[in-house]
Amino acid sequence: MKGIQIQGVEKSFSKRKILQELDFTFEAHKIYGLLGRNGAGKSTLLNIITDRIFATSGQVIVDGEVAKNNDAALSKIYLSSEMNAYPASIRLEKIFKMTELFYGDFDYTLANNLAKQFDLDLQQKFGKLSTGYRNIFKFIVALGVPAEYIFLDEPTLGLDANHRDLLYQSLSTSYIERPRTFVIATHLIGEVASLLERVVVIDQGQVIINGDLEDVLEQSYLISGPEKEVSEYTKNLNVIGKERLGKISSYYVYGKLDDECFLPDVVTIEHLDLQQLFIHLTNPRKEQ
Amino acid sequence: MKGIQIQGVEKSFSKRKILQELDFTFEAHKIYGLLGRNGAGKSTLLNIITDRIFATSGQVIVDGEVAKNNDAALSKIYLSSEMNAYPASIRLEKIFKMTELFYGDFDYTLANNLAKQFDLDLQQKFGKLSTGYRNIFKFIVALGVPAEYIFLDEPTLGLDANHRDLLYQSLSTSYIERPRTFVIATHLIGEVASLLERVVVIDQGQVIINGDLEDVLEQSYLISGPEKEVSEYTKNLNVIGKERLGKISSYYVYGKLDDECFLPDVVTIEHLDLQQLFIHLTNPRKEQ
């Protein structure tokens, strides 16, 4: 079976549970958004999947094989993160070659082409790059490796809007030319949303959403109107947040609406975008 | 006259011109977006305005007075940026008091309230904060000072979507309660846009846009259709970018449309959002 299965994965540091029994699958040939607040456990999960740190319990299965200590399985996975630091004195071109030694056939044509588009001189040494260009370079390496599962942890850190736009376009083009799995962990939810097919939301070490982006957005609602009518209409719904502006109350809802329930004229229903949904799902509940 | 006037400001490092004769005004009681690519000169400009570095020529006038070496004028300006580093061992509460010594009346009520909302413990030492919380703390300090002109250089660096949302809301609320000038330099153009009244775009050391956001967006167009019709319709317009997808050409235009020109049915016109406009205005022109 193709895909990466996370089976009962838990992780504790000291006595704190960082990840609590995660069970889900990254399916093959999809673009995923992996979303979570700072400290939610995203990076820990990525490091467990790529065998950089051990899970306290549970296991990761890659295309049917246990990944732990399994070089063949692990070579199918590539993680690009803050932790990929290369020696400062090495030229970028050389790093492509080093990467090929570990991961096999490197796509030099794609990498050279991307370097040109991003205006990145490959004769430079890694240590000379700005934060933005370091991340651009790591992204180019990630697209060049032949791995089937590419994890990108905050790939747009330090990039200006133009370079972020080019990065999203390049990822999309490369995915169409060679379908594989991308998992993008990012805080810039609004602008990455249009790239994603599936979305996994981690909150306090648990997966609280795992679904097709379209289905997820389909059941995300902003319901507004006078407090009395809105609270009546939403009384059996999954309300994830509330706001009030003057006489208008806005309730954020995730889940199915109640078709039986009468909708008064003064109440309006809109859909949320992914970033709004995420914020309301993961905000700590306050007493209303 | 209220406001900050930038008069003929130039800056060179070695022989490279970073800023080329800037002439414009930050008006009082407005929220500005200061937008530019990495390396465009934004931070250099902010450092000149706050007298942290010298201009090669030109001057900065604050409410009618030359700012250089003028403590009274400079105390009206507050810049929050990467450069505000506090000693690691100082508690956050203490930093409020230190700030008050320099800038006068500090708004402790607002600052304590914001700290609570952001879940930031003010008994902590500065050195213990994560990147995100460092920037949250600096933002709280910036809102607490009584200065009339607040410059925020990338205030959302390291913040997750929830905290960015809360930051934008807090800024907006504080601005309504005590109108003053905010200048926000940021790469997250899409999500900051709804806060802004005015926008200044710097490209390669020059101001290429300075206007009301509404007016700027009003003259930003995406014109799409078959290549022949689109290129004919736009031939006298200010085309800032072109894209092609299959048989459809999309031209990005900034400026007035030609009312005399016949618009064929097959050509559609939409408005751009600020981030799209920015990207196309500041992308290096390629041969088409």
Automatic annotation (TrEMBL), chains A, B:
Domain of life: Bacteria
Annotated organism of origin: Ligilactobacillus ubinensis
Pfam families according to UniProt: ABC_tran (PF00005)
Ranges where the ABC transporter domain occurs: 4-229
Molecular function in Gene Ontology: ATP binding; ATP hydrolysis activity
Keywords: ATP-binding, Nucleotide-binding
Protein name, per record: ABC transporter ATP-binding protein
PANTHER family documented for this protein: ABC TRANSPORTER, ATP-BINDING PROTEIN (PTHR43158:SF5), SKFA PEPTIDE EXPORT ATP-BINDING PROTEIN SKFE (PTHR43158)
Entry-linked SUPFAM superfamilies: P-loop containing nucleoside triphosphate hydrolases (SSF52540)
